[in-house]
């Protein structure tokens, strides 16, 4: 569900019951600061304009929470300032309002609500991130057939790549990310999730999950009637685990081709 008011979009997604993969994905949200007082797990993530993303990116404040077998995604999407002299959205105020709304909605766990401070606006790390070094923009362009240049956005233990046509179906709508979890291989030691596929020949063990979700503001993209296909490949190698995610607008009937391109790319990434 989403609601728009004066340049702000409020989006709510509640999965009940949530799958094991949805709960695991929520708990592994990159650059997500812990929130105390909500459910079994909660964190807040600031993306887009808050992280210095170019091209008029929206300012996104995202709260992820897990309670038992339920997973909640609540986000505020604000327009960036139209001129440098205009003050931008307040990440602290947005985070506090999201957290308070969740508690008032019955997700408080009885402990004190503590909301982390938003990071300074702008890129968080330098572009020489070791995670970004795992895969180059040229390798991504070749693998998926993209023609535009990608913006590379390093984070803490992760790297994201945004290509140049996020609202137009095709390879240049690609949003690709890599998360590296040192010592995290045990997360793949359990049984295969109901919505997971075992992929042979990638690392020591690999699980692929494919889902579809609406395009537009909820997916942090320009408006589009085409759904977003999300492919997440979790790979264990030695003691470590990496999660590779490709989010792309694709035409009906091309999912298998894109899946093959994605798996072939990841197979050649060493970490």
Amino-to-carboxy terminus distance: 38 Å
Q: What is the helix content?
A: 10-25%
What are the secondary-structure elements, in order, as H or E?
A: EEHEEEEHHEEEEEEEH
Biggest β-sheet strands, sense, barrel: 7 strands, antiparallel
Overall outline: globular
Low-confidence stretches: none
Strand content: 25-35%
Report the total helices. Answer: 4
Radius of gyration: 18 Å
Helix-strand layout with pairing:
Blueprint: E1 2-5, E2 8-15, H1 20-27, E3 32-34, E4 41-48, E5 59-67, E6 70-78, H2 91-107, H3 137-144, E7 151-154, E8 158-162, E9 175-181, E10 196-198, E11 205-213, E12 228-237, E13 240-248, H4 255-267
Helix pairs in contact: 3-4
Describe this entry's structure for a reader:
The protein starts with a strand and ends with a helix. 17% of the residues lie in helices and 32% in strands. The longest helix is centred in the middle third of the chain and has 17 residues. It is globular and about 45 Å long. The protein has 271 residues and is α+β, with helices and mostly antiparallel strands. The chain is built from 4 helices and 13 strands. A 7-stranded antiparallel beta sheet has the order 7-8-9-13-12-11-10, covered by helices on one side. Strands 1-2-6-5-4-3 form a 6-stranded antiparallel beta sheet. Helix 3 runs antiparallel to helix 4. The mean pLDDT is 87.
């Amino acid at each position: 569900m989403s609601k728009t008011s004066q340049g702000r979009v409020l989006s709510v997604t509640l999965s009940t019951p949530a799958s094991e993969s949805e709960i695991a994905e929520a708990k592994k949200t990159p650059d997500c600061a812990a929130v105390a007082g909500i459910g079994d797990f909660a964190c807040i993530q600031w993306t887009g304009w808050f992280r210095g993303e170019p091209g008029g990116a929206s300012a996104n404040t995202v709260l992820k929470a897990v309670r038992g077998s339920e997973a909640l995604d609540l986000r505020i999407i604000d327009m960036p300032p139209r001129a440098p002299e205009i003050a931008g959205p307040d990440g602290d105020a947005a985070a506090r309002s999201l957290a308070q709304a969740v508690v008032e909605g019955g997700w408080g766990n009885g402990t004190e609500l503590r909301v982390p401070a938003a990071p300074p606006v702008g890129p968080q790390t330098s572009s020489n991130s070791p995670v970004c070094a795992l895969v180059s923009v040229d390798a991504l362009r070749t693998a998926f057939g993209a023609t535009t240049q990608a913006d590379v956005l390093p984070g803490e233990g992760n790297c994201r790549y945004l290509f140049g046509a996020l609202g137009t179906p095709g390879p240049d709508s690609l949003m690709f990310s890599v998360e590296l979890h040192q010592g995290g291989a045990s997360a793949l030691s359990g049984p295969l999730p109901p919505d997971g596929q075992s992929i042979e020949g990638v690392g020591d063990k690999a699980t692929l999950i494919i889902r579809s979700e609406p395009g537009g503001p909820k997916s942090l993209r320009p408006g589009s009637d085409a759904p977003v296909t999300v492919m997440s490949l979790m790979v264990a190698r030695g003691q470590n685990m990496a999660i590779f995610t490709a989010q792309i607008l694709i035409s009906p009937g091309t999912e298998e081709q894109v899946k093959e391109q994605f798996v072939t790319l990841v197979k050649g990434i060493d970490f």
